[in-house]
Specification:
single chain, Metallo-beta-lactamase, Chain A, globular
Length: 332
């Protein structure tokens, strides 16, 4: 029987001591791999019931920004540096960077009986791979062979920069929309190219402030409800707006919308225009080929594909068995 599993609610269970990215009633320790909502499920339950909640320091800072500064008094929110090992109860927990958003981690758990299990969380390739594992739980966001793009990430970045330069040169008012993390990454890409103010929602500007604290952004992103931002907007001064993909923004407020997502059709073109909207395929997830490459290099005895967060876990498990001859099952 596997000693790792994926619960329907999204908790990744690594042995009898650790739950990841979800709450485990019988598990004294929780790990949070990064600060995206689907990996913070049942956070409040964990806060009140689990003895230790471990994460990389940047993830803890992001949680403070997202959930509130009142969490500073909580003693069970514990930072663990990448490459360091924490001995909690009967388990040893080690983080490796996942290269997804700021503070994202892979998790290795070594149990008292010597078994080693791991969980990637969301990750970008290439990264250092967890090896010597008995069992590996892996993200299946792009677990289907159809999810392979015909261009490199460097091409997407350059075309995005060129698009923004072009729109600014034309005097266009620009709104850029993405999920948290991707949005701040786009800010990183654009800050060296323009001194225009960046204005975002209160939540996204708070997240940007954490990126700044960790050396990722050179100057602050203004809260659109703050006095400085309100004056810039009222005076019709040029600026670039940043909003979460789910925020509703009036079409008339801007001349161009740049929607940063992941994969789209056709997959041979990183940017597609629809009227005044541009869809840009800038992702922080490994595609299918990179996911297979990860498993091949990790070479665990068993792979569990995470079926609790979308993607195609069933196909990924089938492809791992067929291509790599490694035992693989679907979890969640």
């Amino acid at each position: 029987m596997p000693i790792t599993k994926v619960l329907p609610g999204g908790a990744i269970i690594l042995g009898d001591q650790v739950s990841c990215d979800g709450f485990g009633w019988k598990h004294p320790t929780r790990v949070i791999t990064h600060a995206h909502d689907d990996h913070l499920r049942d956070f409040e339950l964990s806060l009140g019931n689990q003895e230790s909640i471990l994460m990389l320091p940047a993830t803890r800072d992001l949680i403070y920004a997202i959930k509130g500064r009142h969490l500073l008094v909580r003693r069970n929110l514990l930072p663990l540096e990448a490459g360091k090992t924490a001995e909690i109860a009967k388990a040893r927990i080690t983080f490796l960077p996942a290269n997804h958003i700021l503070g994202s981690a892979q998790v290795i758990v070594e149990m008292e009986n010597g078994k080693r299990v791991g969980y990637t969380g969301d990750f970008w390739w290439p990264i250092d791979v967890m090896t010597g594992l008995d069992e590996l739980v892996i993200d299946a966001t792009y677990g289907n062979p159809d999810y392979v793009r015909g261009y490199k990430e460097e091409q997407v970045v350059e075309e995005l920069k060129e698009l923004v330069d072009k729109l600014l040169a034309e005097g266009k008012r620009i709104c850029i929309k993405a999920v948290a993390g991707r949005l701040q990454y786009v800010m990183q890409l654009l800050q060296p190219r323009t001194r225009l103010p960046f204005i975002a929602s209160k939540k996204q500007s708070a997240i940007a402030a954490v990126y700044g604290d960790h050396g990722c952004l050179a100057y602050p992103v203004l809260d659109r409800h703050g006095s400085d931002a309100q004056r810039i907007i009222a005076d019709h001064q040029p600026y670039i707006a940043f909003h979460h993909l789910e925020e509703r923004i009036p079409e008339t407020d801007f001349d161009a919308f740049i929607l940063v997502s992941a994969y789209m059709v056709p997959r041979e073109r990183p940017i597609v225009q629809f009227g005044k909207t541009y869809r840009v395929a800038l992702t922080d997830h490994a595609d299918f080929n990179a996911t297979i490459a990860y498993v091949e290099k990790a070479a665990p005895k068993l792979v569990i594909t995470d079926n609790s967060r979308g993607g195609d876990a069933k196909t990924l498990a089938e492809e791992i068995r067929g291509r790599l001859k490694i035992d693989a099952i679907v979890g969640g």
